[in-house]
Amino acid sequence: MPKPNEKQLQMILEDMVVARTQAGRLWNLQRQGQVGTIAPIDGHEAAIVGAVHALETESDWVLPQYREPLGLRKYGPEVLDTFMLYNLGHPAGGHIPEPVKVAPSQISLGASIPHAVGLAWGMSLKDESGVVLVFFGDGASSEGDFYEAGNLAGVLKAPVIFLCINNQWAISTPTHLQTAADSFASKAEAFGIPGLTVDGNDPASVYEAVSEARNRATSGKGPTLIEATVYRLGAHTTADDPTRYVPSEDLSDAQKKDPVHTLIHEMKEKNLWSDAKQSEVETAALERIDEAFEKAKNTPLSANSLMDHCFASDTERQSRQRSFLMHSIGEANE
Amino acid sequence: MSEKVSELSMLEAINETLHSEMARDERIVVLGEDVGRNGGVFRATEGLIEKFGENRVVDTPISEAAIAGSAVGLAMAGLVPVAEIQFLGFSYQAMHQIAGQIARLRYRTQSRFEPQITIRAPFGGGVRTPELHSDSLEAQFANIPGLKIVLPATASDAKGLLTSAIRDPDPVLFLEPLRGYRGIRDLVPDEEHAIPLGEANLVKKGDDIVIISWSYQVELSKRVAESLEEDGVSVAVLDLRSIVPLDVEALTQIVAHCGRAVVVQEAPETGGFASEIIATINDECFWSLEAPVARVSGFDVPYPVGMLENLYVPDEARIRAAVLKTMEEE
Q: Does residue A76 carry a pLDDT above 80?
């Protein structure tokens, strides 16, 4: 199995530290009322970053659920810039520009899984070389879309990677109330595709599993389901109070396996990371998110954008509504 | 005009259009249940797999949500999916993908992804189908911004509108009346034939009253209009062809001209698209009315079993009665 080399692990750790650092800033911005609801990434960094580093950004698509964007740094600065617009509630937050192969956050749980299958299928029909990786959680795996899409992908041998990040909680619902199956990976059997469970706190394991799945997909052998087990270290979202249901002893056990701290420790032992490097990465990460936030806040917004992009061009009725809207707020119709 | 035409059933017209569009645009992929080897349960997709191969004509598992959902992905890949939902009533099992994803794809991504997706589905009563095969759901979809809803009433329009639907950059729900598949036959242009979406068709001129309808109910409305001519009532018939986009101008013009109108739909009365038509008439030309606008609808019950079907689906007698009653109003 292809393992990440030391250089790659350094890059992976850097992206994990950036994600963790920026998540903290984002949490504070939400608490100050400056951005909308946020789903913290804490505890998921290794699974997300490890997976993404096994992909080729030029050819491979990532379809996130909604917890992943801070972990997609490898796909370029446009992801964070767009994500900050999204967090502000700006319509441009749904448009990650070409040619970045990342879809915007998906709020409907599991709904992107059939999109991933269709996209992967379409790419293979067009003889394009890439794969599609779709993120979803343990909770989303109970949606019909997961089963329908997994089944279809198996039949079509679509070059898709289903990455189920099992963080043990679907808001307040623990995994034993989510499924009676031995594992989420075991559901692959019903689709006739390989399924495996990996330690999602270890980015090298996730990297290896995704690389292997990618090799399978690009050699025409079809999809793979990977379950990456992690522990949600933060709240479900900024609107959630996990102290109501997460046992504190479980959380403190999980904190001992914190993927960011664990990898920092390992890399320091090997002299591949240092406190100075850590501090440098954190400072740059904060500067970067602050810059993205300022840029987002200064992005112009026209009332016209309420009506834009529903159809390629307005219906007669929409034009009438647009005129009414613009007239009522005293702005010119664009 | 020396345009060549052939007499075709609506089903033949649809099949011919799928053939010609697939030949024209190699990005088109037809997907759905039994659309390949079987040529569709009604044979609407007959011959496609033989001509275009199994990469472009795909028998899917019985998975309406995956059909609609994978169409999103195919469109993201730059292909043009033409999906079939075997019966419109089964679209409930894809509703979260159609309403929650397809219809919003362009808006939520600010046109990064363009949903050039056509979903074909037969619907409508009169052929004694099992449960959920006949339901008229068009008004439910009309309440979802981002979907176009096209409902041909003739074979010629089926060709002209399906051609435009497939070429349209936005998602189009193309609804085909079960009763019309073989029951409606007319002259269809042999050559390319594209009717712009959102143009209603005044299928019969008249001065006293207009019947406004869509899909198979246009056929019944025409018969009623013709029979009433013999009784000295001049009845116009307006076929909306699509309810989104709605041809407000054609609607307003003919209602203002006649001063009286009846709207006919097969769907249940409450929340049906007829209500939207009447509200539009109120907005646009209320003062030209000489009588309240009447509705002929199904009843507010689930689409019934076969032995009750004839009581449910509007027929010529019910349309005729509504027209005559509206003519009597002072």
A: yes
Instruction: Name which of B216, B204, B220 is nearest B258 in CA terms.
Output: B204
Quick one: B65 and B95 in the same domain?
Answer: yes
Residue B99: its chain A contacts at CB < 8 A? Answer: none
Distance CA B216, CA B202 (A): 15
Q: Confirm if B209 and B238 have CB atoms less than 8 A apart.
A: no
pLDDT in tens, B208-225: 999 999 999 999 999 999
The CATH number of domain A6-301 is 3.40.50.970: yes
What does pLDDT average to over chain A?
Answer: 97
A316 in reach of chain B (CB within 8 A): yes
- Collapsed DSSP state (helix, strand, coil) of residue A132: strand
Residues with Cβ within 8 Å of A256's Cβ and at least 6 positions away in sequence, in order, are none
Q: What 8-state DSSP symbol labels residue B98?
A: I
User: Which parts of B240-319 are beta strand (E)?
Assistant: 242-244, 261-268, 294-298
**Contact assignment for A115 to B70 by CB distance below 8 Å:** yes
State which residues form the domain around B67. 7-189
* Active-site residue flag, B257: no
pLDDT tens digits for range B108-161: 999 999 999 999 999 999 999 999 999 999 999 999 999 999 999 999 999 999
Residue A29: band (very low, low, confident or very high) from pLDDT cuts 50, 70, 90: very high
Catalytically annotated residue among B19, B96, B133, B193: B133
Q: Domain ends where: B169, B189, B209?
A: B189
DSSP secondary structure letter of residue B275: H
pTM of the model: 0.97
- Give the 3-state secondary structure of residue A83: helix
